Amino acid sequence: MKIKFTIQGEPQGKARPRICFKNGKAFAYTPQKTSEYEENIRRSFRKFCKHKFEKFERKIPLEAVITAFYPISKSINRAKFRSGNKTFNNKTFQYLNP
Question: Does residue 3 lie within any of the structural domains?
Answer without folding.
Answer: no
